[in-house]
Amino acid sequence: MSDVEKKSGRERGEEWWQTGIIEMSPGVIRLRGYEIQDLIGRVSFPAVIWLMLRGELPSEDQAALLGIALGAAVDHGPQAPSIAIARMAATCGVGINSAMASAINVLGDVHGGAGEQALSFYGDIALAIDGGTALGEAVSARLDRFFAGEKGYVPGLGHRFHPVDPRAPRLLELTREFAARGVINGRFADIAEAIEAEVARRKGKRIPLNIDGATAVIYGELGFPPPLTRGLFVLSRSVGILAHAWEQSQQSERNKGPLPREWLWAYTGTPPRPFPGEGEAGE
């Protein structure tokens, strides 16, 4: 008889969804070992996010820097697909949770995933530096591989609306301030700026860091792995999604599509034609 077969039904049930995140029983809620009542009123929301994901409480400075990154990416207006979807869903009469879920579900590789891609890119360079390669050489080698075998834009650079993303310089400035105080070491900021400089040298024009690249710097400095960067972006953008879904739900418009009803799409299919057999002689 196997060990699994020897266990009682209760033991099997308790192990089915075993977790190191939360302990809960009647009258007891503990997050990572901390009583919830001890956390309430003493720990900020960014600090709770850190605790849930990392298992330990951050320092006040670490929580503050995480909150800065989360706050920077909350919204980018109804032209952003996720925000537009939330608003359209709200006009269809669904609940606010459905509107939010509809929006969050489109935060994928193209819309919402660039931060994860940027941090992975930075991580490749950081690994080369740890192996003894100089910063400039590591950046150049990684860009060589990117331009030789990968498609699209260098992750974390450029913006389709902003010549310079107004969020990125401020985030880098704050990252440098936290590094100067010893909260972080600043290596990912160095890497991001070196990438920006090398791409500018190769292309003959500057393609500035964007919000995804700048928040990836902070998440990397704070020790978050790349996949969590996407999840943190979802948490951040959910604030804007909620705000827009709520605002739209307070308006009277119904079944609002992506364009005003007097603007129709461009039809590119077959021109009008008769149904086979209609109008033929002898019919």
UniProtKB/TrEMBL annotation:
Lyase found in the keyword field: yes
GO function term, MF aspect, one: citryl-CoA lyase activity
Root EC class: transferase
Source organism, top-level taxon: Bacteria
Stored InterPro entries: Citrate_synth-like_lrg_a-sub, Citrate_synth-like_sm_a-sub, Citrate_synthase, Citrate_synthase_sf
Keywords from the UniProt entry: Lyase, Transferase
Region span, Disordered: 249-283
Biochemical pathway: Carbohydrate metabolism; tricarboxylic acid cycle; isocitrate from oxaloacetate: step 1/2
Pfam families found in the cross-reference section: Citrate_synt (PF00285)
Record-listed E.C. numbers: 2.3.3.16
PANTHER family listed in its UniProt record: CITRATE SYNTHASE, CITRATE SYNTHASE, PEROXISOMAL
Family: Belongs to the citrate synthase family.
Name this protein carries in UniProt: citrate synthase (unknown stereospecificity)
